[in-house]
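A reminder before we start the practical. When you read a complex entry, don't treat the lines as separate problems. The point of joint prediction is that each chain is placed relative to the others, so the output describes one connected object in space. Small molecules and nucleic acid strands, if listed, are placed in the same frame. In the example below there are two entries. Take a minute to note the order of the lines before looking further.
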Amino acid sequence: MRITLPQEKPQDQLASLLNHDMVKVNSLIKKRMASDAAPRIPEVTEHLIDAGGKRLRPLLTLAAAEMCGNTSPYHIHLAATVEFIHTATLLHDDVVDESKQRRGRPTANLLWDNQSSVLVGDYLFSRSFQLMVETGNLRVLDILANASATIAEGEVLQLTVAQNLSTTEDTYLKVIRGKTAALFGAACKVGGVISNAEEKIIDALASYGDALGVCFQITDDLLDYNGSSADLGKSIGDDFRERKMSLPLIKVLKKSDVTEKEFWKRTIEKGDQQDDDLDFALKLMTKHNALKDTHNDAKFWAEKAKKSISILPKSKLRNILTELPDFVVNRLS
Amino acid sequence: MRITLPQEKPQDQLASLLNHDMVKVNSLIKKRMASDAAPRIPEVTEHLIDAGGKRLRPLLTLAAAEMCGNTSPYHIHLAATVEFIHTATLLHDDVVDESKQRRGRPTANLLWDNQSSVLVGDYLFSRSFQLMVETGNLRVLDILANASATIAEGEVLQLTVAQNLSTTEDTYLKVIRGKTAALFGAACKVGGVISNAEEKIIDALASYGDALGVCFQITDDLLDYNGSSADLGKSIGDDFRERKMSLPLIKVLKKSDVTEKEFWKRTIEKGDQQDDDLDFALKLMTKHNALKDTHNDAKFWAEKAKKSISILPKSKLRNILTELPDFVVNRLS
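Here is the predicted structure of the whole assembly.
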């Protein structure tokens, strides 16, 4: 009798295949997150380390390097770097969004204060910068510096278009390219660069990361409306309450009639929200296929990601990276 | 008849002597502070540019480079870099301190919101990082990455020792080395490094910047108690109200008797402050020579700074830099 095991999630497969390197990355992260001078720093960072997270970005760097036959020892530094940048942006995001929960746990700004989150975020960002300087590779420095600037631009743009009902899908894409896809793209690209891969391979990795990041964020924004708290580690409807112009909202707005638009004006533009408004928002989104259309967009980007790395030599890692976008999109099914 | 003109301030002398380069620095700053993607960014940064400030840190970089016979074009990039890092930390500081005034104008967090200040600060920090990567000089990257981490550590340490009456002068020194002296030191040091100066010259420049920064911050903390609003561009007694453990307070605490200590416990530890408490605090500081002793400490660091650069070849710039620490200390007379 043959037993069919449920297939392991692609990121878990990545984690076990790259475990040898991830142990080194985690140890480097732990070491560099510490600070002798200011004991508050390890308190906050340990809270974040314990919260875990999937470490998807450093896994992408390690996978990209491995697929390109890397021989440099600095892929470990780069993997830690992208996780530091990611963690720094999470700390600042939670201040900006006044979030109370992250990965199913209270956020640092709730446990300590906004001040600590701002300054410890700055510290982690500086630490990431030190790590990448140690690689001595100016090209990866350039890539990561550009990614950092794009992330910050995306975050500011998101802030300024919040509550603006005329936000277009193009603007939304610019926001998520910044806040999410830039780091996914850079994480993959630097893995190729540090391994001295051919330019077309480096480009393919960058495109893969970019498309995966877009797909990841669109799915995240969709789950905010139709996921479950357990999937998200945060509460359903956060984006609605924070009046964020995410894709499901942009799509439903486009199809809403005059009366329905009044609902969106009251709840999103003016922020006057009642208890059952989220339910009604979901009803409108279902009525106008906004959730389904958003899901289709996520699938489009998943296909794009998969196609990007098809030029890489066949390997176990390439297979897993090819499965990953579909898995990301299907988190909601 | 000979007319004696009042002596020009050293930083004004620096500014006119280095005007040719500063024009380039200002133009680079203006160009790189912009953002096509997020219009909020130039709004906030232009507010900061207009507010001016002395641009002391970039002037130090230019002066150091010039004194070392610099031939690289990248001293301009480095001068802009240190100003960007400085501006980014100001934006975050004002959020952390909940400040309402900076350089005599409303702060960005007051004009826009904390969110914008956090994210635009991140943007400027990323931009500074891009600028320094463009120099292609790994050693200056290393120096500035370390300075950034030290700044963040100093800021976190300051946050965690606020209101703690047992804070020592050593801890205070660690805080200001981070929040102020690290960038002064790095600003001077990279000027030497980019010019391929001898190691002992580079070390001398780093020591000068460090001591000048310590002297600058001690004086600033003193002025917070006995300056005038016009000198500061902020309100007298801010540190008292924010219950910051600055040097005058640490010094007066050491000499306070049991009854006086109760006053400090109430106002600083518990934060229960009445209208005339600042006056009484100043009376105690005068009684125990805390302001005078703080001034003496500032003078000690001024001497240290001056001595550090005495090994540099004689020049007009060296003369000005030698006058600068005394001028900083005597802002209060």
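Discuss with your neighbour: The interface with chain A takes residues 35, 37-41, 89, 92, 95-96, 114-116, 118-120, 122-123, 125-127, 129-130, 133, 136, 138, 141-142, 145-146, 148-149, 151-157, 159-160, 174, 178 of chain B (CB under 8 Å). What might explain this?
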